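Quick start: load a record and inspect it. Here is UspA domain-containing protein:
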Amino acid sequence: MSSSIPLSLRRKVVIALDADQVSPATDDVEATTQSRFLSFKTVAWCKANILRPTHDHVFLITSIDPTAIFDGGVLSAMWSSLNGTEDPHGDRVKMAETALRRLAESLHSVGVSCTIEVLRGAPAEMVTEYVHVHRGELLAVQVVGRSAVAQALALGWPEVCARSAECPTVLIKTGDLPENIGSVLDPTPE
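Running the structure step on this input writes:
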């Protein structure tokens, strides 16, 4: 039955992951692994609680903001390539694509139709535009903890998306996800 529903008729679920979690701006392998595991847990939670593999198509996205000059990874790349012409975001985009591809493979292994895309721009604007253009019917956004000062000064991009997206939005707080949630992405033995 899963192959009988054409892609155009499936519910379009957009899962927006935090770029700092998908492609962290650090050389620390342990910190990178932990950040990516939070994204894996977010996708696993969506699979367990939202997704219907035979009826949904997932758009797995993240947005890297090229105007974010205080991004540690970008500053490091800019410093190391002062005389170069390469895009300091290029490596981060490739890392994000690789991470999203791995997450998409995890979804495919349990029967979920999925495509990936790395957007360039401010996440709040790019994610809501993406949902509009692709006619998303549900938006699930990864929320990573922010400091009390940051929360007091302005809404984070996930909250802005929840207010401005043209579809229902689920905010997924990564700090509250159970440790064993990843098991839902284990393919069943045949």
